[in-house]
């Protein structure tokens, strides 16, 4: 099979596929013994700077789990680290910034990101993977961090619960906030374009923590930058996936930002998510990652429910967020088998949205509906 005909790319375009495609966010990593064996002790940033190793870590879950897509082994803070913002990634904690972004003078530290010069190792990894996966007909997903989520690390200085500094900057100095997000949008866009140029077949924008915002704040403070990233990819003709956690109230707005696929976490059932997103986007999700720690019968029942509510057509099965390190890889293997054995919907999507096990769920598009130009296809 050639990559272009893969079930994953077909489902992103809401085309009929012979099976529901499945991959898992954070499918590479600590849940796999072969990852722990290969990773070594250094910073994850050092691993990412080693193309052969990063490519190997990307391929491990493809080999073991039989997933329909690979996701590049990298991190959302790689571009910011590469331009010298002073980012490190602490094992067991995540990204940390010794000297966080707090004022206008810090904008100078966010110089323009040039992927070829600043992260040649990422592009080399993508090239290795595109060749290796291409021969197997498996697409490679490139990714970048969404402007809000990357800003939250730069402004807070590390992982955060309440985003106090980030939200305060946003409200106290909206002009500076807009310039920060615009710079981070340019960074994400340059990174994603370069990954596609090197051979990635799809891209995902991880705005993981944007669910901390109200819809009003999201629309005013984040959506313009997100649109800039997604619309800036439109000419490349690769599916764009847009994902965040806790975004139930934001799904309609996120769908209006320009992606082909909206990622949904476990808090909103997929049929309801489709109602909020509108008929012109595919959906990705949405099994609770913690469910994977339950007995198989529970995993199976919840996965079947997600499949039924997802409706087959234009559904990429995934977890609602990343694989937890405690997950038994055997559970993920069984999940892939289960999803691949599930029925797919037939026929092209209707204006009402794809059918589900419970009949047509969508009574019209969400507030905006993504890729509106495709809505009547
Ligand atoms: O298979 C894969 O998905 C692995 C590749 C990958 C991806 C897609 C890594 C490697 N990081 C990411 C994206 C990423 N990084 C996101 C978006 C996805 C998500 O929401 O989970 C985010 C928010 C980060 C930031 C980050 N990097 C965190 C989260 C911290 C927090 O705020 O809670 C952590 C722990 C890291 C480090 C990191 N990146 C990747 C790995 C495997 C690790 C962990 C460990 C290590 O040091 O080995």
Report on the structure:
The structure is a single chain. 42% of the residues lie in helices and 10% in strands. Residues 347-369 and 371-377 have low confidence and may be disordered. It has helices at 7-12, 33-39, 44-48, 51-65, 78-82, 115-118, 120-134, 147-156, 164-172, 174-198, 215-221, 223-231, 251-255, 270-277, 296-310, 329-341, and strands at residues 70-71, 87-90, 94-97, 140-145, 202-206, 240-243, 261-263, 282-287, 315-319. The chain contains 16 helices and 9 strands. The strands form 2 sheets. The chain has a 7-stranded parallel sheet. A two-stranded antiparallel sheet has the order 2-3. The longest helix has 25 residues, at 174-198. The protein is globular and about 55 Å long. Helix 9 (164-172) crosses helix 10 (174-198) and helix 15 runs parallel beside helix 16. Helix 14 links the parallel strand 7 (261-263) and strand 8 (282-287). By secondary structure, the chain is of the alpha/beta class. It has a single domain, classed as TIM Barrel (Alpha-Beta Barrel). The site of coproporphyrinogen I (1CP) has 21 residues, from strand 3.
Essential attributes:
single chain, 377 residues, alpha/beta, TIM Barrel, seven-stranded parallel sheet, two-stranded antiparallel ribbon, 16 helices, disordered C terminus, binds coproporphyrinogen I
């Amino acid at each position: 099979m050639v990559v272009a005909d893969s079930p994953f790319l077909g489902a992103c375009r809401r085309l009929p596929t012979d099976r529901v495609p499945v991959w898992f966010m954070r499918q590479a990593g600590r849940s796999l013994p072969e990852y722990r064996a290969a990773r070594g002790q250094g910073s994850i940033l050092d691993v990412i700077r080693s193309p052969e190793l990063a490519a190997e870590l990307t391929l491990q879950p493809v080999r073991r789990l039989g997933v329909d897509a690979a996701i590049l082994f990298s991190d959302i803070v790689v571009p910011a680290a590469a331009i010298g913002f002073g980012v490190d990634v602490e094992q067991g904690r995540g990204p940390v910034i010794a000297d966080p972004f707090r004022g206008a003078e810090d904008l100078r530290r966010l110089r323009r990101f040039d992927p070829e010069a600043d992260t040649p190792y990422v592009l080399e990894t993508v090239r290795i993977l595109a060749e290796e996966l291409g021969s197997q007909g498996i697409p490679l997903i490139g990714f970048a961090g969404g402007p809000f989520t990357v800003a939250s690390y730069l402004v807070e200085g590390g992982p955060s619960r309440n985003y106090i500094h980030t939200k305060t900057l946003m409200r106290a100095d909206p002009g500076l906030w807009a310039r920060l997000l615009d710079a981070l949008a340019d960074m994400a866009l340059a990174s994603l374009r370069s990954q596609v140029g090197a051979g990635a077949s799809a891209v995902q924008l991880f705005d993981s923590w944007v669910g901390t915002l109200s819809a009003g704040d999201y629309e005013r403070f984040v959506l313009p930058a997100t649109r800039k990233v997604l619309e800036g990819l439109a000419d490349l003709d690769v599916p764009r996936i847009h994902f965040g956690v806790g975004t139930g109230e934001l799904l309609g707005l996120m769908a209006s930002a320009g992606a082909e696929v909206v990622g949904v976490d476990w808090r909103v059932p997929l049929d309801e998510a489709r109602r909020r997103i509108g008929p012109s986007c595919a959906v990705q999700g949405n099994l609770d990652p913690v469910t994977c720690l339950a007995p198989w019968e529970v995993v199976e029942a919840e996965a079947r429910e997600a499949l039924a509510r997802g409706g087959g057509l234009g559904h990429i099965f995934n977890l609602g967020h990343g694989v937890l390190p405690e997950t038994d890889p055997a559970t993920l293997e069984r999940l892939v088998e289960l999803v691949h054995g599930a029925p797919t919907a037939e026929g092209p999507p209707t204006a009402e949205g794809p059918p589900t096990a419970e009949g047509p769920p969508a009574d019209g598009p969400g507030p905006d509906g993504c890729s509106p130009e495709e809505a009547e296809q």
